[in-house]
Design goal:
Number of strands: 11
Oligomer: single chain
Radius of gyration: 20 Å
Helix content: 25-40%
Strand order of the largest sheet: 2-1-3-10-4-11
């Protein structure tokens, strides 16, 4: 079981009381465009979140926020690039707990998530949705598992890539139920969802923004969310834990998101960026847009981001080692 405790934390704004260090940043920051790197493909949750927040940052700070997608290898390609970004306060990376998976999945990485970046904050979470093509004769997780056991290896599921939380969540389902379903990795949730809609992959485990709109249009049938509780943004979809399937009663895999910056980024800038993101995340129009995309607020400090990352690294490692999951 993987369980993440949601924490709603409110901190006082530090914008009016910045430390003496980083005077140059204080006097005119920001005075040029900001860069947010997203280590995943366009149309996924991280991309949606980055672009909504980037637009609001542009409006409030008067500087363009450039969102760059650098996908591949479970987010490791993007994180390698993020490590090389200048630590001048104009570069940030939006991570998810897929980075925790990659940290233990790949034997040789050019970055260390716990050592090479400065944490900024936790900002949101999004349910991962298990959905099927309408031709699949299963209307619940219980029926899907039963179908997979009747016809072993006849079903295939698309994930957002090897080493993503989506991949690991379904592998946990398979392990705990002994169901045989073939894994087909994609370079992002968007492509996986497209192939599920066309029927090339009968099942998709993807982010809510990628899957939910198509499920509500009838192009896919949503069976369950991976969270331990029903999510406010998609309360009509039951959890895997509600399926009644033996072994899944405590199933709970969340997918959180947070900002980091290159190590050495001035602390006053990190505090200012954090405060502005929190202000934006409190705006009703932003909350409405994010909810419509299947994203729920989950505000936490930089320290809480590091604790969540450390906990997932340790817990995902147990699953990866047991299931002998290897990068492809």
């Amino acid at each position: 079981m993987i369980r993440l405790k949601h924490c709603m934390c409110v901190i006082a704004s530090t914008v009016l009381a910045l430390p003496a260090a980083g005077v140059q940043a204080q006097s005119g920051y920001p005075n040029k465009p900001l860069h947010v790197l997203v280590p995943f493909t366009a149309s996924g949750t991280a991309d949606t979140l980055a672009r909504v927040l980037g637009q609001k940052l542009t409006e409030s700070w008067g500087q363009q926020v450039i969102v760059e997608n650098r996908a591949g290898a479970g987010g490791t390609i993007g994180m390698d690039a993020a490590k090389r970004m200048p630590n001048d306060g104009y570069n940030f990376v939006l991570i998810s707990n897929s980075q925790a998976v990659s940290q233990v999945l790949y034997a040789k990485l050019n970055h260390d998530m716990m050592k090479d970046f400065a944490p900024v904050n936790l900002i949101a979470s999004s349910p991962m949705i298990v959905a099927v093509h309408p031709s699949v004769p299963a209307k619940s997780m219980a029926e899907l598992i039963a179908l997979a056991k009747r016809d072993p290896d006849k079903l295939s599921y698309g994930s957002c890539g090897v080493g993503t939380a989506h991949h690991l969540a379904m592998e946990m389902v398979k392990f705990q139920t002994q169901a045989l379903i073939v894994h087909i990795p994609y370079r992002g949730c968007g492509p996986a969802t497209v192939d599920a809609i066309s029927g090339q992959a009968k099942i998709v485990v993807g982010s809510s923004p990628a899957v939910l709109p198509h499920a509500r249009q009838g192009k896919l049938r949503a069976l369950a969310v991976t969270n331990g509780r029903r999510t406010p943004s998609a309360s009509e979809i039951p959890t895997i834990a509600e399926s009644g399937v033996p072994g899944l009663a405590d199933f709970d895999v969340d997918n959180w998101y947070g900002f980091m910056a290159p190590l050495g980024t001035p602390k006053d800038i990190l505090a200012r960026f954090d405060a502005e993101i929190r202000r934006i995340m409190s705006q009703p129009d932003v909350l409405q847009r994010l909810s419509g995309a299947g994203i729920d607020p989950r505000l936490g400090t930089g320290d809480e981001l590091m604790r969540a990352l450390d906990m997932d690294i340790k817990q995902f490692k147990k699953v990866i080692d047991f299931a002998s999951i290897k990068p492809e």
